[in-house]
Design a protein that fits this description.
Blueprint (H helix, E strand, L loop, with lengths): L7 E3 L8 E8 L4 H4 L8 E11 L2 E15 L6 E15 L2 H5 L6 E4 L4 E3 H12 L9 H11 L14 H12 L1
The chain binds zinc ion.
Length: 174
């Protein structure tokens, strides 16, 4: 119903009354994110609230999306659910950003006009892993065998067994 493309929050208005936005946006409409995910067909949903708080304008909210990334171990798609909260404060320059209380991340804008889609995209990009990998390496193993069965597989090296030495000791006693 609601799409964030082209929608703005005017943070100057939040001085007088709280502002809110809630809706969804297609991943495909977020170009920086779309260029790094394996599939752009999904949606991101978000809630954003801006209000005057302690002498500054804070922008808080939540972004959710079930992203599909490419596992860098097996190069198959992997689901990467994002459910992230953000706690920002509007700053107009570097000095304001440096003086910000630690609980806030700076939201830099000279005019106070914040593109909602870009805000959502920033939060999703921040939530991405440095390197996308299946959490369980076994999932990758399955994928690799599907594509290229190991023909001349190297003999598996047994991991060192801490009980092996114990076995030797036990046998020695009998
Ligand atoms: Zn993998």
């Amino acid at each position: 119903m609601s799409g964030a493309s082209g929608e703005y929050l005017d943070l100057t208005r939040a001085r007088h009354q709280p502002l809110g936005w809630a809706g969804t946006i297609g991943i495909a409409a977020l170009p920086r994110l779309a260029s790094v995910v394996a599939d752009t067909s999904g949606l991101a949903s978000a809630k954003v609230h801006a209000k005057h708080d302690g002498g500054q304008i804070t922008v808080q909210g939540k972004v959710e999306a079930n992203l599909l990334l490419t596992c860098q171990r097996c190069f198959r798609k992997m689901e990467f659910p994002v459910n992230t909260d953000f706690n920002l404060a509007w700053v107009r320059n570097e000095t304001e950003a440096m003086n910000l209380a630690d609980v806030y991340e700076p939201l830099m804008s000279i005019s106070g006009r914040v593109n909602i889609a870009e805000l959502i995209e920033d939060e999703l990009l921040l939530a991405l892993p440095m390197v996308a990998l299946h959490a369980a390496p076994q999932k990758c193993d399955l994928g690799v065998r599907d594509i290229a069965p190991p023909v001349a597989a190297e003999p598996e090296v047994d991991p060192p067994n801490p009980f092996a030495a114990l076995e030797v000791l036990k046998r020695g006693r009998h």
